[in-house]
Recover the amino acids of this structure.
């Protein structure tokens, strides 16, 4: 810390901060390795593919040009699916590699990615492991998603002069304040990116404050994603089990929010005695612990992950599974946005909007401020600050079919209005893509009689 605070010219601070970071991660190699082994024992790493985290790829590199997309976790990975599908359609000669860092994201990618797209775990940010990864894959273009900035990897991309775009960039107020304590580091990191494509104008301005160049705002890629998939067989089973019972969903909930949702359920039961509340924790591995707490308090609960039956007296359906959120949204038509009652900044409201859900959210939607304002202005959503207010809003929707349908239609209209964002993003990518592999020409066969 004292070395970084010494009165050096800015360019020397830049070089020293990255150099010290690399030296630190090199010296801490044994400790980092032990830490990763600990994560492996705890089930936080993929046992069958653990070597990938150490920079040892498990697949061969295809011949020809290759684009590397790094998306830290589930949300970031899913936001790139529409972009990947378009790349595969328009740039058939380009191979695509996508990396992420979590076991959950790998499972989702295995289910959602086309067979010809390669998934690997991102290497831990130690230079030997990073170099091993880059020497093997030799990417022609890198698309780095959102704001997980690893100094080792990014500085090495810059050293190797690999064109890199920051995609769907987001800088929270907390991150902005944090990076202001190390301005020389973030400026050096941001120099890696040839272009920064921000989600919102606020994110774009924050990037400029931190020193980024060539910053543009085409919009949020998460809003271009296709509707979440619905498993028809599962949906039919759940629909039959629930029948005509009133229901609603609280999705992607974080610790502390489940307690509030329980209070909401108790209030709503006074008006709807046979109510069933669907609750989907953001992290499914919390399902067992949550279920035990609910049952200790006397609630009747069915865990989807255990295929537990839904009885007439079941009060909660716990969606502690991966990849079934679309099915739950289709099952109901009222959705409460998780992460909006805590400091998480809210989860993606466009996903339930695309599947005809009227929306209720808490006061903290910092991750989606622009879309929150648009949804509110269109009459698609409403803010509720505590259990009493949430219960009031959900009760109103459950009691008024016309209002519920109108809000759901408004939400879907807002969601569908974002599909042009992908075209805007490709207007920035295409010049670089043309350098790698020209777009496939589109041939139109004309009928002679036409």
């Amino acid at each position: 810390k004292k070395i970084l605070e010494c009165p050096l010219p800015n360019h020397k601070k830049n070089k020293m901060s990255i150099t010290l970071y690399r030296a630190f991660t090199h010296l801490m190699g044994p400790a980092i390795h032990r830490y990763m082994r600990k994560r492996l024992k705890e089930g936080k790493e993929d046992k069958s593919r653990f070597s990938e985290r150490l920079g040892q790829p498990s697949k061969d590199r295809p011949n020809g040009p290759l684009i590397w997309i790094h998306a830290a976790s589930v949300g970031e990975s899913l936001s790139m699916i529409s972009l990947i599908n378009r790349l595969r359609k328009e740039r058939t000669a380009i191979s695509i590699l996508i990396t992420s860092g979590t076991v959950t994201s790998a499972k989702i990618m295995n289910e959602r990615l086309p067979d010809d797209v390669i998934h690997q775990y991102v290497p831990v940010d130690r230079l030997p492991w990073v170099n091993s990864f880059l020497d093997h894959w030799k990417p022609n273009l890198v698309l780095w998603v959102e704001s997980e900035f690893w100094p080792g990897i990014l500085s090495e991309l810059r050293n190797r002069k690999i064109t890199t775009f920051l995609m769907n960039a987001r800088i929270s107020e907390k991150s902005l304040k944090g990076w202001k304590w190390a301005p020389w580091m973030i400026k050096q990191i941001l120099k890696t990116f040839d272009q920064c494509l921000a989600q919102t104008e606020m994110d774009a301005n924050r990037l400029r404050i931190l020193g980024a160049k060539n910053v543009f705002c085409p919009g949020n890629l998460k809003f271009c994603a296709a509707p979440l998939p619905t498993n028809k067989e599962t949906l039919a089973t759940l629909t039959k089990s629930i029948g005509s019972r009133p229901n609603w969903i609280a999705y992607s909930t974080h610790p502390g929010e489940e307690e509030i949702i329980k209070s909401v359920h108790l209030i709503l039961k006074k008006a709807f005695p046979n109510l069933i509340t669907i609750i989907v924790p953001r992290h499914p591995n919390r399902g067992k612990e949550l279920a035990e707490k609910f049952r200790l308090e006397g609630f009747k609960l069915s865990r989807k992950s255990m295929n537990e039956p839904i009885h007439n007296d079941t009060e909660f359906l716990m969606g502690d599974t991966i990849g079934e959120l679309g099915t739950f949204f289709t099952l109901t038509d009222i959705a409460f946005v998780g992460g909006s009652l805590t400091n998480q900044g809210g989860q993606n409201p466009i996903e339930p909007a695309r599947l005809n859900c009227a929306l209720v959210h808490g006061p903290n939607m910092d991750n989606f401020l622009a879309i929150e304002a648009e949804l509110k202005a269109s009459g698609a959503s409403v803010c509720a600050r505590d259990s009493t207010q949430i219960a009031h809003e959900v009760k109103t929707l459950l009691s008024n079919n016309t209002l519920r349908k109108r809000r759901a239609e408004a939400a879907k209209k807002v969601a569908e209005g974002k599909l042009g964002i992908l075209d805007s993003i490709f207007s920035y990518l295409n010049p670089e893509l043309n350098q790698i592999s020209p777009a496939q020409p589109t041939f139109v066969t004309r009928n002679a009689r036409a």
Notes: Residues 61 and 137 are 6 Å apart (CA to CA). The first helix runs from residue 2 to 5.
